[in-house]
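To assess whether ligand presence alters the predicted conformation, the chain was also submitted together with adenosine monophosphate. Input:
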Amino acid sequence: MPTSFKALAELCEKLEGMSRRVPAVNLVADFLKSLEPGEVEPAVSMILGRPFPKWSQQTLDVSWATLSEIIRRITGVDWKVFLEAFSQTGDVGSAAKVVFESCKVKRQAILFEKPLTILEVRRSFEAIAETAGHGAREKKERLIEALLSLASPLEAKYLVKIFIGEMRTGFHEGLMEQAVSRAFQIPLETVKKAGMVLGDIGTVAALIKAEGREALSKISFQVFRPVKLMLAQMANDVAEAIKEHDGKTAFEHKLDGARVQIHKCGEDVRIFSRRLTDVTRSLPEIADTVRREVKAREAIMEGEVIAIDNEGHPIPFQHLMRRFKRVHEIEDMAETIPVGLYLFDILYLDGESLITLPYHQRRQILAENAGGIPLTKQIITDSVDEAEEFLREAIDCGHEGLMAKRLNSEYTPGIRGKNWLKIKPILEPLDLVIVAAEYGYGRRCEWLSDYYLAARDAETGEFLVVGKTFKGLTNSEIIEMTKRLKELAIKEEYRKVYVTPKIVVEVAYNEIQKSPKYKCGMALRFARITRIRDDKTPEEADTIQRVREIYQKQFLKKGNIRVWNSI
Ligand code: AMP
């Protein structure tokens, strides 16, 4: 018997009201056991708030504006009902349920006629995702309307949550792994490992249900299904990295670009971004290079794509992001923002998973298969001096710092562990002046906890905002700061208080970016307050000229480009 979507919605409703994990895991495990094999993956995805499995590139792409318009149309309910329910619950799905309930009588006939099944919902999602070309928008709206018209208020609540990607039941992926482990009596570690390889817990559950636990011993990567990325933790310096990796490690240049996972099968090459979306169309020349250089029939490799100037020097990250956003006029962009690929890992080669091999061996295999594509520059050393020299070299070449990789480590998809460490030199902090502040949210709603940071223009004396942060101060410092700022207040505008520039703070940051956000044309990236500098007067604070100097220094290292001359 096909399982109804109502059963899934009722399960989610129960999960939403449960605070204890074990009973929630048991409940989901029982539900999974009751499903038909073909229902398992769609159900797992939907319980986790996803219309499709994680590896899928399909998206629903429905905005709240469109969805709310359709709900209005179907229910004919005064929208005030929605707004009131939303202000009470703060949850779009729950508010949609209230709207659907308000028009219950009119729609009852439809509901009794045709209960939705999990598979029908999945098929509708697929049809919605597949709409393309002329008239796609209207077609998509019709499909959504058809689906929601068949939904009860409770079903509508969960459909809306899946549409907008906000499940909020608290039942996350980790708990789902436990539920799958419990439902099919398979050790949690085995389930997790299978999830890493298949890239989706629903797909793992479906495989076990259909083919039994033995199927797990045979699974391997599949080309064109992106694998979750292995991630790095931070180390303070190279000495710490060497110590952490038991006295000897592989240091590599850490390039300031975008991580890519490249899948190749014959002539077909696809490139996935850090978020595992397919960005092949944005990087046609990288796909061409891989097609030309990599001789293996099948491979999954990883590397970093960086933007480069005409002489091949790296230029800042934000330029590269423009390439990723730009799908139209690709050829133009390829000319103005050339990119380069540097490989650093290989996960799979001609039918064999390589992730359990030690890193130094994977790197060797990568070198043998990369053709003319460069690998990230690497040294293997136990010497702090040599590593420091290598770090200086990386910075001088315009790179971000170093990565340290434990020589005998496996590739662990989706794990941010100590086998990969990143080392970035910290830019010198700036002393800046607070010129305005905003009230915070939640517990901080009565405190001025979000600060506008400014540098003085030595020529005009004006204080120019270069960044904003709510990070760095302790609660008691924020309370004290609120008192001081209120005394300095000039005017209040909604939640923002403008103050006379008196208080100086020391601010750490990762980078200075060109930005239209502030009048000075620059913005600090990841600013955080490291100290309150009551020992400094605003006149002694850093000037906008100094900020510009640091900004330009970044570029001297990163290759010579036009943009900074205009600031
Ligand atoms: P972060 O984004 O600061 O967590 O640093 C990790 C990121 O550095 C990775 O996801 C890659 O995008 C990037 N990266 C740059 N060079 C390398 C390298 N040689 N090995 C691994 N990751 C690198």
